[in-house]
C-alpha cells in the first residue's frame, strides 16, 4: 500500500488524527481498558464508554497525564490500534506531531519515539509546537505577526502561547483543564448534597449547563448515589452549584494569562492587545467563555470555529503546504534546537 502522511495531535482526553490519503480528520478518546493487568480489552471511544462502569479486573486508563505521555507502552499500543482501524493505514508512513512546549525534552521526545520506535516503522517523523499548529489552524500569519496570544483549553491542561516573528516567544502549560472543572463539580455536589456523581456525569453537567448564560433557576437531573443511604438515585443539581465549582479553576487560568501578559515584551504586548486572544481546545466550545475572558482580561477574545480540532487542522495545513513545512522539525537532525 502506498505511504501515507498523518498529522497527530495527542491530547490527554482525545487523540485527533489527520489522514492525508483520505483527507479526513477523526478523533477518538485517549483511553485504554486493560483486563487483569495484561490483556487489552478495548481502546478509544469504546474504552471510554466503560469508564467508571467496569468490574474490578478491568482497569480503564488514560495513557497521558497533564499533557504528557505517562504510560508509554499503553499509548503506543492504543495509537497503533486506532490507526490500523483506518483503512488507509500503511507502514512506513510519515508523521507530523503537535507537542506541548513547556515540558521537559525527555517528555517531548516521548511523542517522537512513540512512532519512531514502533511497529509502524515510520519513514519520517517531525514535530511542531502545539501553539504554532493552533495558529496555523486559525489561519493566522505566524511568519509575519508582531504578537499573537493563543490559549488552548484542553482536557487536562491549558496551554498559553505567545507567538511573534515566526516563532514562540513565551509558553506556559497549566495543569488545569476540563477534567479539573469536572472534578470540582463532582466534589462540590458531594460536599453540598452528600451525593456521589461520576466523572462523566460531572462532565455532562458542566457541558450542558450554560454556565455563563443560563439564568439562576436552571437545574438538571443527575444520576448518582446517596452517600448516607447508599441508594442510587437521581437528584436535581442547580446551575449555581456548577458555577461555584468552576469559578476557581477558571480564575486560575485568567491569572496565568494576565501574568504571562506582564512578562511579555511591551511591543509584542501592544500587538496582542490589537489582535486579541485566540481560544482553541475542547473547553473553548463552552458558550460564553469568550465573553468571560474578555471581561476578566480586558482583551478582545476570539474562538476558533472548531476549537478542539484547531491544532490538527493546523497540522493538515502544514502537511499540505511547502511554505509551512519548515515549521515542523525532526528531533534527530543535527540542527535540532536543544542540541545546539
Ligand atoms: N461542547 C463542549 N462544551 C464544553 N466542553 C467541551 C465540549 N467539547 C469538548 N469539551 C471538553 O474539552 C475537553 C477536551 O478538549 P481537548 O480535546 O482539546 O483536550 P486534549 O487535547 O485531549 O487535552 P490536553 O490538551 O489537555 O492534553 C474535555 O474536558 C471536554 O469535556
From TrEMBL:
Question: Pfam families, per this entry?
Answer: MreB_Mbl (PF06723)
Where it sits in the cell: the answer is: Cytoplasm
Q: Does the keyword Nucleotide-binding apply?
A: yes
**Chain residues that bind ATP:** 155-157
Tell me which stretches of the chain form a coiled coil. none
Asked whether the keyword Transferase is assigned, the reply is no
Q: What's the superkingdom here?
A: Bacteria
Q: Which UniProt keywords apply?
A: ATP-binding, Cell shape, Cytoplasm, Nucleotide-binding
* Purpose of the protein: Forms membrane-associated dynamic filaments that are essential for cell shape determination. Acts by regulating cell wall synthesis and cell elongation, and thus cell shape. A feedback loop between cell geometry and MreB localization may maintain elongated cell shape by targeting cell wall growth to regions of negative cell wall curvature.
Membership in a protein family: Belongs to the FtsA/MreB family.
* Quaternary context: Forms polymers.
HAMAP family in alphabetical order: MreB
> What protein is this chain from?
Cell shape-determining protein MreB
Q: Organism, per UniProt?
A: Dorea ammoniilytica
What lineage does UniProt assign to this protein's organism? Bacteria, Bacillati, Bacillota, Clostridia, Lachnospirales
